[in-house]
């Protein structure tokens, strides 16, 4: 197994966003979500960090507030958005750092013979429907007068064009659905603010519980620590302009095909 590639904890500048940023991280208790939170807490440009997760968290910074959320419960998503709106009025960056590939209830399929309605429904609920409902309630909170970003973790394996290996049917299909949602939401978001972006992010292979069973055989340097992955993705978001809205971008800034 490749060792995770370390990363100096650089302070994100987020220069293209301006200052006094209010940001939200959904899925903040996960490996990558917590790394996003820590990076944003260090950023001088960030004034407030709203963290949302199903697992309870204790804020590590005076900037940070936490509230529970369940992506399979729209009422909890609406409450989370109301909390952020009440405290900040508007947001400048929203990151949905959630995803389901496997857990104690299901594993990625190696063959169509393993497909079940239950696993498909659950994958879509977490990987596509949940982020869509977050968008429904959080996109209206994005400021209208400056660069803002709504970003959701997608995956290269959700690319239809790039699929040459097959397998992982539910995960691939649900991430492909998320990619379509991102593209569609971007069209509507641009009508509200032509400086706003809706973006899908591919973090690469990150050393978290999601990827741990599948890290064998990775080339050296292709397994990232959560801190490195979060830092790389924030740099990517900082470098994007409105013309990139609706796209799927990898950790190195490469635009991936849908």
The figure for the number of domains is 1
Query: CATH fold name, please?
Result: Rossmann fold
Sheet with most strands: strand arrangement: 3-2-1-4-5-6-9-10
Question: Tell me, what's the shape?
Answer: globular
Q: How much strand?
A: 15-25%
Class from secondary-structure proportions: alpha/beta
CATH architecture: 3-Layer(aba) Sandwich
By DSSP (H or I, 4+ residues per run), the number of helices equals 5
| Percentage of residues in helical conformation | 25-40%
Number of strands: 10
Largest sheet: 8 strands, mixed
- CATH superfamily assignment? NAD(P)-binding Rossmann-like Domain
Low-confidence stretches: none
How are helices and strands ordered from N to C? EHEEHEHEHEEEHEE
CATH domain class: Alpha Beta
User: What Rg is obtained from the alpha carbons, in whole angstroms?
Assistant: 17 Å
């Amino acid at each position: 197994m490749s060792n995770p590639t370390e990363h100096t904890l650089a302070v994100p500048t987020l220069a293209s966003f301006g200052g006094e940023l209010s940001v939200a991280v959904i899925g903040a208790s996960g490996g990558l979500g917590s790394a996003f939170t820590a990076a944003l807490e260090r950023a001088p440009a960030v004034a407030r960090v709203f963290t949302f997760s199903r697992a309870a968290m204790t804020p590590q910074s005076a900037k940070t507030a936490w509230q529970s959320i369940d992506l399979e419960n729209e009422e909890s998503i609406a409450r989370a958005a109301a909390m952020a709106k009440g405290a900040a009025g508007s947001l400048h960056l929203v990151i949905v750092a959630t995803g389901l590939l496997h857990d104690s209830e299901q594993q990625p399929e190696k063959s169509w013979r393993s497909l079940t309605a239950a696993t498909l429904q659950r994958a879509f609920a977490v990987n596509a429907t949940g982020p869509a409902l977050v968008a429904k309630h959080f996109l209206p909170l994005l400021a209208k007068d400056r660069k803002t970003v709504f970003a959701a973790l997608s995956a290269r394996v959700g690319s239809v064009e790039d699929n040459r290996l097959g397998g992982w049917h539910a995960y691939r299909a649900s991430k492909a659905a998320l990619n379509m949602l991102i593209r569609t939401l971007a069209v509507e978001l641009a009508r509200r603010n032509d400086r706003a972006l809706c973006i899908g992010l591919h973090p690469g292979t990150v050393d978290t519980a999601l990827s741990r069973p599948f890290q064998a055989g990775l080339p050296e340097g292709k397994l990232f620590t959560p801190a490195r992955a979060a830092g790389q993705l924030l740099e990517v978001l900082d470098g994007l302009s409105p013309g990139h809205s609706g796209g799927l971008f990898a950790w190195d800034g490469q635009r991936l095909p849908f």
